[in-house]
Write a structure and sequence with these properties.
binds zinc ion
């Protein structure tokens, strides 16, 4: 086997390329038109939007489910290089406690802070669009920014409470319900062997007596 990887293993569409980012759909709820903000540094506008998620964000154990609303409170500020977006995104999260497997329902709020660079600025010329977001045709798309921020903020092992005692490894019952004195009789293995031997002999003598 030769160690060379055929160039065909990488479809051309997946090759990294410094292209102009796609124009956001101006009717999408995540997209904000910044043209009325103006390009005078310091001008500022606030927006509130409740956006239903078309696809869930998260992992199997915890997620913001598809169809749930993300509540956006953002401030758009014109700066020299572009538009600075700051604010919060909040949403309901559902999942499962990593210890006791109980259903979890919680609310998550994440901070947003993202610069969208104007075309032909120093930032635009010196960075890739996947490093720094871009203002395209006066539009900013908050969806990738919010999705990344939410994904980062979700816990890897969510808990119903910091002190969740989890499950009993012997019977799988919930320790919180079983109580602190819940225990399983553990028989000494030598005694267990003796007991089986006794039972066996008892059965044999019963058969003899029949
Ligand atoms: Zn738990
Ligand atoms: Zn148990």
């Amino acid at each position: 086997m030769s160690g060379r990887i055929s160039a065909r293993a990488y479809p051309e569409t997946l090759m990294p390329r410094n292209t102009t980012p796609a124009r956001p759909d101006p009717t999408a709820p995540w997209v904000i038109d910044t043209r009325d903000l103006g390009r005078r540094p310091g001008s500022m506008r606030r927006y509130h939007r409740d956006v239903p998620l078309s696809a869930g964000i998260g992992l199997d154990v915890i997620e913001v489910a598809a169809g749930d609303e993300v509540s956006l409170e953002v401030r758009l500020e014109s700066v020299m290089e572009g538009v600075l977006v700051s604010g919060t995104a909040s949403a309901a999260v559902t999942g499962q406690c990593a210890r006791c497997l109980d259903q979890l329902v919680d609310r998550l709020e994440v901070e947003l802070l993202e610069l969208f660079a104007y075309p032909d600025t120093a930032t635009d010329n010196s960075t890739d669009p996947d490093e720094v977001s871009r203002v395209v045709d006066g539009l900013v798309d908050l969806e990738p920014v919010v999705r990344d921020a939410v994904l980062l903020a979700l816990p890897q092992a969510p808990l119903c409470g910091e002190d969740c005692p989890g499950l009993c490894p012997e019977c799988g019952g919930k320790r919180a319900e079983l109580g602190t004195d819940h225990r399983h009789e553990k028989m000494d293995p030598r005694w267990a062997a003796l007991k089986t031997g006794l039972k066996q002999r008892l059965r044999e003598s019963e058969q003899e007596n029949e």
